[in-house]
Amino acid sequence: MRDVERTGCERYVGRLAPSPTGALHLGNARTFLIAWLRARSLGGRLILRIEDLEHPKVKPGTVSDIIDDLRWLGLDWDEGPDVGGSRGPYVQSQRQGLYQNLLKRLESEGRIYPCICRRADVEAAQAAPHAGEDLRYPGTCRGRFASMEEARKVAEGRDPAWRFRVAPGPSRIEDGFLGPDTADLEKESGDFVIGRDRAGAGYQLAVVADDAAMGVTEVVRGDDLRLSMHRQAALARTLNRAEPAWLHVPLVVGPDGRRLAKRHGDTRLSSLRALGMSPGRVVGWLAWTGGWNPGREPRTARELVATFRLNTLDRRPVVYRQADL
User: Fold this and answer.
1) Which of 47, 161, 307, 318 is such that its CA lies 20 to 30 A from the CA of 284?
2) Would you say residue 152 lies in a domain?
3) Does 44 map to a domain?
4) Among candidate residues 299, 153, 253, 213, the one with its CA nearest the CA of residue 13
5) Which residues contact 257 (CB under 8 A, 6 or more apart)?
6) 106 shares its domain with 173
7) For residue 169, what are the domain limits?
8) Is the pLDDT of residue 180 over 80?
9) Catalytic residue annotation
10) Is 221 a member of any domain?
11) Mean pLDDT of 219-233
12) Residues 6+ apart with CB under 8 A from 69
């Protein structure tokens, strides 16, 4: 584990980047608390950015609920949609012009190509049953269409996707928590989607564009996004954008080892608030799971800045049971 090297002219800049696709739960809270403590313990700045490009999943009113939940936990930020800043807007759906320009550049350089495959097509092409979300794309549409217009005609009303051509061979990245991490995108994921024809950019491209534009020096998030680190690093290098340092931390899971969901009980922060639970009790438990609180006593986020250390984090996922809170 390492701290980001900072020079006299470079200050740590971190970010909280929730997606308004549902209410924040304890797993989200733990990751955001770690990201907040990382920035505050290094005397850095923190940005709140709303990543709302998954249009079918975005739920109205969720952004204000997310901000309320984060504030309730005692987290703050120096730039964001509610406080402003010089690098806004801080909502991705308001930054589509930037992404469109990058898509045009990648298209002109031959780094992306149109694809009409559905997820079901990709699933059917797997060599073996695949239980995870990261399916390997077999390259069905690579070289198939001369233009997006041609792909759109064949797609018959559906929006084709833009896929990024991955380079063969492994890539190695030093993660601030995981350590050296190696992935071979060609073998593990194949060419990946970075945008839709009419809807604009998708998650992978938007994150790279925004982290660079907002001066983010380190990305702190859950280790379920480990493979995305390699995708985004490849994109950043292709676009000649500054690549941040990376720090991926374990998730909170249920007793069955799966990420938190309704089957594990109601772990939404809004529900805990409605029950009258204090934020100190939640933060105290989260701090105990990270080794910054000797017991489960209530704590404020601000109180934890002095005791926060990466090396006390367990590499295993945190198992949450309803009796914990």
Assistant:
1) 47
2) yes
3) yes
4) 213
5) 317, 319
6) yes
7) 96-205
8) yes
9) 262
10) no
11) 97
12) 23, 24, 29, 269, 270, 273
CATH number of 290's domain: 3.40.50.620
With cut-offs at 50, 70 and 90, classify the pLDDT of residue 1.
very low
| Percent of residues, the chain, with pLDDT higher than 70 | 95
Query: What confidence tens digit (pLDDT) does each residue in 183-223 have?
Result: 999 999 999 999 987 778 899 999 999 999 999 999 999 99
184 CA to centre of own chain: 20
Q: Are residues 140 and 168 both part of a single domain?
A: yes
Q: Establish how many alpha carbons lie within 13 A of residue 100's alpha carbon, considering only the half-sphere containing its beta carbon.
A: 9
pLDDT, residue 59, reads 85
137 contacts 165 by C-beta, under 8 angstroms: no
pTM of the model: 0.92
Q: Please check whether residue 220 lies inside any domain of the structure.
A: no
| Phi, psi (rounded to 5 degrees) for 195 | 180, 165
Query: In sequence order, which residues have a C-beta less than 8 Å from that of residue 92 and are 6 or more positions away?
Result: 49, 50, 51, 52, 53, 206, 210
Measured between alpha carbons, how far is 288 from 294 in angstroms, rounded to an integer? 6
Does one domain contain both 116 and 132? yes
Per-residue pLDDT at 57 = 83
